[in-house]
Amino acid sequence: MAVNLRNKYLGNSKLSKRNRPFKCQLDYILNGKRVRETIKDVTFEPTDTKEERKQKERIVNRIKSQLEIELGNSKNGLVSRQLQKGNFIEYFNNLGNKKSEKTKTAWDNTYKHLVEFQGKKITFENISISWIEKFIEYLKKEGLSNNSIVTYFNKINASLNQAVKEKIITENPVKYIDRPKKEETEIVFLTKEEIIKIINTDFFDNEVKYAFLLSCYTGLRISDIKQLKWNQIINNKIQLIQNKTKNAVYIPLNSNALEILNKQKHNSTFVFNLSKHESSVNRTFKKLIKLTDINKKVHFHCARHTFATLLVSSGVNIFTISKLMGHKDIKSTLVYAKVIDEEKEKAVNSMVEFTF
After folding, report:
1. What's the CA angle centered on 290, arms 285 and 296, to 5 degrees?
2. How far, in Å, are 95, 141, 251 from residue 169 at the CA level?
3. Which member of 214, 266, 311, 351 has the greatest number of CB atoms within 10 A?
């Protein structure tokens, strides 16, 4: 792709061009738009000797040739060195700003640590295996939990994968690194008796209370509960596309779930009138738990765990549970079967020991 050179004269415009210094401009078309890029590091002076001028011309022509190669590569779908000089930190922040509310929080937190670790600029060409490993070490020294480190690492990985797709870089250096692995966290769920305690507890925000209870009976995530519309309930069955996985789920509604829906008839389009911020809903829900004598670290997502464990305890086929939960992988569902087995083992081991 052709690149033209133009002179940009400096200094007093009343003087003739022969007596004025100038810089060269690269004049080219990019994505249908004319671009004029000044070569800032080279200035031609009226006092230059013939040899000095030739040396500067060689530098300018080399830069011009390199740009023509890069523009040709870009047109043919190859990675451009010009793109590799882009700011990765800024690119990462822009990607995070496009994410959904729940996901964006993790991207924002990763961005904050990136800036603390690196500052607000590092080019793509300087993102190396060593740099990523040093970032992981920085996160460890900050005293973050292993699972938080895994989360932030995954966001870096996702952004670099996107950069490969956009042909900014040729490959993701993460693939050559031993990735930090997520530790299994305790799954907190409620028993039938604990659900009844919540039902019988008077609370100032029944929207949040009933939303949680419906999640206990359907397994819906808070993101899906918030956006649940009446037209997604057909023939006593919820039919929707999950926000997180984009999987379609069809969930039959039992009498408890139908009773909750009846209490929500005052809302028109959406079943629940909840705050747009999930963190706000969770804070309100924790106030409800404090009014009960439930001695567990319960948060809104525990409702989904409760739905799964109640089904496992009732002997429902694990594949059926997986479909109801909208899991992409059966391994995600098997975790609940393991939890129930552990609970059974605890129950047996808690029996009074007799001496024979």
Report:
1. 90
2. 16, 29, 43
3. 214
Do 185 and 206 touch, CB atoms closer than 8 A?
Answer: no
Q: Which helix (H) or strand (E) holds 30?
A: strand 22-30
Q: Give per-residue pLDDT as tens, 186-218.
A: 789 999 999 999 999 999 999 999 999 999 999
Helices (H), the chain: 50-75, 81-84, 88-97, 101-118, 129-141, 146-165, 192-199, 206-218, 222-226, 255-263, 278-290, 302-313, 318-325, 330-349
Instruction: Reply yes or no on domain 84-176 having CATH 1.10.10.60.
Output: no
**d(C-alpha 9, C-alpha 23), whole Å:** 7
pLDDT tens readout for residues 271-292: 999 987 888 899 999 999 999 9
pLDDT at res. 356 = 60
DSSP codes, 252-315? E--HHHHHHHHHTTT-SSBS----S-HHHHHHHHHHHHHTS---S---TTHHHHHHHHHHHHTT
Q: Rounded CA gap, 97 and 94, in Å?
A: 5
pLDDT class for 138, splitting at 50, 70, 90?
Answer: very high
Residue the block writes with tokens 């992409």: 328
| Predicted local distance difference test score (pLDDT) of residue 27 | 92
CATH class, range 192-349: mainly alpha
CB atoms closer than 10 angstroms to residue 159 = 23
Q: Which two tokens stand for residue 90?
A: 């800024």
Which of left, alpha, beta for 193 (phi over 0: left; psi -120 to 50: alpha)?
Answer: alpha
Both tokens of residue 106? Answer: 């993790």
Domains 84-176 and 192-349 share a fold: no
Contacts (Cβ under 8 Å, ≥6 apart) of 51 = none
Among the listed residues 281, 230, 224, 266, the one whose alpha carbon sits nearest the alpha carbon of residue 247: 224
Q: Are 86 and 124 in contact (CB under 8 A)?
A: yes
pLDDT band at 88 (very low <50, low <70, confident <90, very high): very high
